[in-house]
Amino acid sequence: MRQARRGLISRAAAIALPLCFVVGTAVSTEQEPIFDNPLIPIPGGSFIFGRDDGNANERPRRELTLPSFQMNRTEITNAQYEGFVQATGHRPAYYAGHPVLGLADYPVVGVNWYDARDFCAHYGLTLPSEREFERAARGPNGAPFPWGDAPPDPSRLGHGNKNCCAGDDSGAYPMTAPVGAYAAGRSSDGIFDLIGNVWQWTRDWYAPYEGEPDPKIAGKFKVRRGGACNIDSVHLSATYRLAYDPNFRYAANGGFRCVRSPQS
Q: What's the first-to-final CA gap in the chain, in angstroms?
């Protein structure tokens, strides 16, 4: 009888253990707020932010520091966003139900900045800052891409053809791809799709790195990062910055992910 009871207790303990997802790296041991999208720890410390050889709004290159934070392993999916809609009554994504863009395991698109902010807040999270996004996408040493120095290729990400902004039919996915489809493109920390697939909202207002913003644009645009499935290679880097109207919700190539951050 004692042996049987011990067996039942052991099985119950095993069932009660938290589930963890391991993709070449450690994951958060805290309870995951978003089902099937764990928060990946990013160590704090110094990192390279910006560059001196890119667009004017990417300059200058400098060394900064950040405390540790955690970031979703992938973009938020249609299924995850629909769960939020069902729980809160928030409006659906604009492309919900689309035969390709609306598939459950594809990144949710057709959400504006406020939709993305509210989703993250519902789970006790925030959108990443530009600095957090760039640290995750470049690693601590300022690599140009999440996977390192090698130029983008179809094994690492989905991107557009040479003439922006149209999809590239030579790859496996002419539009967006399921999240995590490009394992070769993940970062050294184990985060997928930081470049390509969909542009991703950050929580920052667009402004130059140095000096004051033009009064005509100050406080009017949020920053998107990462490029997308229909973007040419010039715009696919860990440093490229896109100023975007936070109210616009019709972009078929724009999504987001969340972070747990002490700077939130």
A: 53
Distance CA 110, CA 217 (A): 23
Distance CA(152)–CA(155), nearest Å, equals: 8
Name the token pair of 57.
């709004």
Regarding beta strands 222-225 and 199-205, do their DSSP bridges make them parallel or antiparallel, or are they unpaired?
Answer: antiparallel
pLDDT class of 164 with cuts at 50, 70, 90: low
User: Span 66-75, mean pLDDT?
Assistant: 98
| Range list of H helices, the chain | 2-16, 78-88, 113-122, 130-138
Q: Which two tokens stand for residue 125?
A: 């999270």
| Tokens of residue 51, six digits | 């560059």
CA distance 176 to 254: 10
Q: What are the φ/ψ torsions at residue 21 (nearest 5 degrees)?
A: -110, 125
State which amino acid sits at residue 139: G
Ordered by where they begin, the domains of the chain are 33-260 (3.90.1580.10)
Position 161 scores a pLDDT of 58
